[in-house]
Amino acid sequence: MTLAQPVYDSRGRVLLTEGRTIHPTIVSRLNAMGIHMLIVEDEVSSGITLNDLLDMPSWMDLVQGLQSCYRQAKDKNTIVPKQVFDLAGKLLSELQHRPVLLPVPVASATEELAPSAHAVNVTIWSLLVGRMRGYTALQLRDLAVGCLLHDIGKALATSDSEHPEAGFQLIKKHREFNLMSAHIAFQHHEAVDGSGFPRGIQGAAYLEMAQICSIANQFENKLSEMTIPPHEVLEWLMSLSGSRYVHEVVQAFSVAVPAYMPGTRIRMQDGRSAVVMSITTHMQRPVIRYEDTQEVLSLAEHNSVMISGIY
């Protein structure tokens, strides 16, 4: 088993290069640093494309850049708008040139980088949904800025319940940012039925962009912190349609975000084992390879072939 992507420390220095053989002692040391996931290549995953995955150096640059923004908020109670716009611009450029854009798992980063890695990934999921909803370039930029900064209030607030308003107040101080971006941070823990916080708003007062960020936040949290498979998280999010989120936003998320990531080992309805190779035209119908015959099949072109679960 060898590394398919390099491993970095919290300062962005390469710890292990791509192609390095992984030994149990190395895994133990990485776990101690808070790195709990590695992107590897073995006999099963050989040939799987990682073209849809944001490359590790680019992802790490985004994560470190955002970490710098959060530190500045904590130390100086300010944000440098140009720095945030630059980060948003890099993500928008990636989105523009890719039909599918997948983030690097948060568990691939050190514990120190996890908060900013989370925010970068939330932004990527949100942008996929925004594109699905037909947002303009400016709307996507405002969505990206709001999502990148959705948790920046945690650098200022004394309790978790206070961080949405703290973030809102900090972002809106800077006139360069659209007020919509500030409201994304303010509302990302609200709910359509009024059960959210900090204000308990409901109905149309809960902005669509904030709902997208909130769903992406929930999705990313469950993927990284609770290690629940994406398809199960999507099913859970669908159950919140009409109560926590409006149906149109939940539907867009379920269509825009893949249920099975490349490299996932799956069990087919006929009992055969397979591995997800890539995602092409349909987020829930990937290209798979059967483990017994090595046959490659696009599920988007074979509607009668069904996935029963993962293993």
From TrEMBL:
Top-rank taxon: Bacteria
Signal peptide feature range: none
A Pfam family hit: HD
Protein name (Swiss-Prot/TrEMBL): HD domain-containing protein
Organism: Paenibacillus cremeus
Annotated ranges, domain HD: 118-221
